[in-house]
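Why show two proteins at once? Because comparison is the fastest way to build intuition. When a single record is shown, students tend to memorize it. When two are placed side by side, the eye starts asking what differs. So, the first record is below.
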Amino acid sequence: MGSNSKPHAVCIPLPAQGHMTPMLSFAKLLHSSGFHITFVNTEFNHRRVLCSHDGDLGSFPDFQFMTIPDGLPESDDLSTRDATSLAQSTMNNCQPHLRRLLSNLESLSPEIPKVTYIISDASMSSALDAANEIGVPCALFRFCSACAFMAYLHYSKLLEKGLFPLKDAAQLHNGFLDTVVDWVPGLNHMRLKDFPSFIRSTDRNNMMLNFIMHHMDRAPMASAIILNTFDELEQEVLTAMAAILPPIYTIGPLPMLLEQIPENPIKSLSLNLWKEQSDCLDWLEGKRDQSVVYVNFGSLATITEEQLTEFAWGLANSGYAFMWIIRPDLVKGDSAKLPLEFLEATKDRSLISSWCQQETVLKHPAIGVFLTHNGWNSTLESICGGVPMLCWPFFADQQTNCRYVCAEWGIGMEIDNDVKREEVQSLIREMMDGERGKEMKKRAVTWKEKAARAMQPGGSSYVNLKRLINEVLVHKRSA
């Protein structure tokens, strides 16, 4: 197939690490299936990526990066953009830039094939309008669990029923959030506190609420919905969702599918916004199996200095070895400063780093438990590694993921939001050596095996990816 006759997919993630990484994985899968890929970053994030990769992502004739502005003021500060400001700006400002980029792609070079399909982050649904203007179909990829997606889809119903906005701030603490919501199809025993956290507001004009509801209203306009999950993990909610949305394709966990494509320079490509530290895997070598606690709160969560200190002493007092990933911007408004006494007390059994290859770390036999914020990428990577979780959700869909990890899948325990060192110590010890921890480890391994079966030829995710490519992405091109 000549380069200009290939199907050409344009992949557009929301400009955040937790969205860029799975979109890149999907783009690699399409590329390995014969697609020309245009991957769209914001100018700001692309500068960050180049900085963390020493200025070089490589050059590939059939996998190109293009950029658009994010609409926020220019800045030489390469810290993570404020999530609320970024969400508002992408919703209000990105469509004309996407339209211009899509219109110009074909004039860049005769070697670039005609755009045949757009895969947009469901939180960048302005791509639907840009795609429509150039006459190209658009699928939406939602980078959260099916459970969280279904919860988001019912935000408008929660509003109609008067369950949000909150009447006053007291409802955050007086038991109101324990109200059971039993009418969302496919979601069982959900309390308000288990819904994605943006409903915890007294302001009907809350920006993140309106951002989510805007994009959820547009989901039915897509030609297909893609989810990074697998059928057996979330079957009940997927069945319910199929009745209200365009065709749904579950193709996760993406890291496992990606393992099946041949080695090539693009397979090892990453878009990390922080420079990976190479010493993490070396440090794990020689450690006993399941002897290390791995701690990482993801790319967006922030904590207070007090919370940092409580986690630190909980880890120290547990007595176990640990690897802790602490981003430069983890602590609100300041750089993370760990107590010197803590550093001295744990220097022989700890590694503190700024970023790592998490997927690889979680597959290492030395990891015994993952202390996590329960972002969906992290949750899936933990399942892929067969590692049980200690859950401390921060915001958005993480509360929903935590609820399913702990109450439905039986592979985690939750740490109270008001974190105390005694609870951290106790839960680590229970998870590492207690009877509940041993049971959760067995179930985590079982879920890992189920995920692996979904990836094999004939498995649900393997078949769904083939169907998505052959029946939707390529078929639409020739229709």
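Second record. Ask yourself what differs from the first in the token line.
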Amino acid sequence: MAWLLRALLGSQLVAHFQRRCGLFPAAEAPLRDPCNGPGRRPQDCTKKYIVKNYFYYYLFRFSAALGEEIFYITFLPFTCWNINHCVSRRMIIVWSVVMYIGQVSKDILKWPRPHSPPVVKLEVKADAEYGMPSTHAMAATAISFTFFIVTVNQYKYPFELGLIAAFVFSTLVGLSRIYTGMHTVLDVIGGTLISAVLLALSYPAWDLIDHFLLTSPFCPVFSIAVPLLLCYNYPKLDYYSPTRGDTTTILGAGAGAIIGFWLTNQYAPLNSSSETFQLSFPPISSKRLMVMLARFLVGVFVLLITRQFIRRLALSMLYYWYKVSTSDEEARKRLEIEVPYKFITYSSVGFCATVIVPVLHGLLELI
């Protein structure tokens, strides 16, 4: 068993998978790659590699993009605008919890990412973080299977089709993290298993949690105080890592969305249970697709404007409060600036996605 764990944690298995998929290091690549280890500068890392199978290259690069936070920050509002609030709400809650546990676990365990060489690294930004567990694998597993579990109880579609789709999505994202050289096999397996256990343990309480977050007068205070407490007490490292900022972004977006759902429920009660009678998916017509696309484009445009405006406003106020020069880019990495500015920015984005954008859709007759 110890031998198996060492093999799954090693870089050789990752390199072997890359070679089997047609990804090789360039002959002129240096013998030692400064990409290894947390805290390294992305500009120091080599990007030289040879692709001999472009099908796998584009497949796994696309799959890796599906595991990025930007995909979920746009996909989750899309489900709110075009499917229903219950589906979006469940996924946002699960995504926030799973990602926080994954990010904290990385900085507590401090397991390194695969070494280069022999591994070819296609990404350099994430290399400043630790490896175990793979939060991409965690998020993909949590989101895809939460979507399947909630929708299969609400809509009529083949159970096997939904299960296969969730499995394929999470598998592709997990394999993409090995292909890009960002995680060992054990990192991906660990992330997938952690998400599976969290889903199994939390599922019986989904309706209870949902009911509390929609009806309790303490929901807004709870949704702000708990995430901020977790972000301010994030594990400290000896160097700056983007994990604290990314975690604050996720928790902030989740908090803003939950408050938006709570506020909406005060005026128009929302369905808080996934155990309802099943509906058939409405037929997909060209007109319906155009309306869905219009909702999405309008929503994303409003969210981008909100993000830029609130971000600049929050940074300006914090820089003024702490007497920091606005030209000091390093200042935003400080705890007292990074956490509040990111939390304020993305909680505003989450609130806007669940309150302002649906109102705008109604005014534009896109509902």
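One difference worth noting in the second protein: The chain has one domain: 13-363.
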